[in-house]
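Supplementary Methods, section 5.1.

A reviewer requested that the exact input to the structure prediction be made available. We therefore reproduce it here, unchanged from the version used in the analyses.
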Amino acid sequence: MRCTNPMARLKLGLCLMGTAAICGCSLDPPLAARGLRPWPDASSCAERGSAGSGPRSSESGGGGSAGDAAVPFVDAWQAAGAPAPSAHGQLIISELMSDPKQLSDARGEWFELYVASAGEGFNLRGCELGSRSHVIDADMMVESGDYITMARSAAPGFVPDYVYSGLTLSNSQGTLSLVCRGTLIDEVSYDRARGFQLGAGASLSLDPVYLDAHDNDRAGSWCQGMSEFNGDRGTPGRENSPCPPKQAG
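The structure derived from this sequence is encoded token-by-token as follows.
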């Protein structure tokens, strides 16, 4: 088995242990009560290093049972010193669904974060969503290139990486932010009256050309999601579709 996870490589001694857990895999998937993405088995370990694969969490975030086992990889990553995000733009708000059509807002609202900082991994425990609307209360490991989905429910039409409470997304205007240890990592203030293309059943999707914490402040960098999922449109957990030329810029 080849160890591909960059955070594990920071601690060569851990990587030399040669376990599936250190390579970023686990034979014991965590429960999905909080929408945590299922873990692959050891046979797919090599594939995990080739693309963003979502966060690693040691807890079910309060929604699972007391017997939920911690993912072994978390201990390895913490030993390698995964820090909290500390600078603006290390993570970027890249997509949000404020007005789902197939589900109620309470079940179908979600947003996505992109880990833009090259070659770095972070632990999002303690980071704040909105104006302290929700504080992430579990170890949540993310790495460069990940598309992280956060949702109001565990079943918004896909399996989200994290389920939050206390935060709602307005259908016409609002501000969404990520703050970690007092540092604003990213913030988007969207407003239909300012040209943000909000629509029922379609996500507000950041054009991949403008995947930047400054460019995503502009209405012209966004368009409505176009790819279908669960009867709505958007690309939760993966790269956004490019905006049509007349909509972008």
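The first strand starts at residue 56 and ends at 57. These observations are discussed further in the main text.
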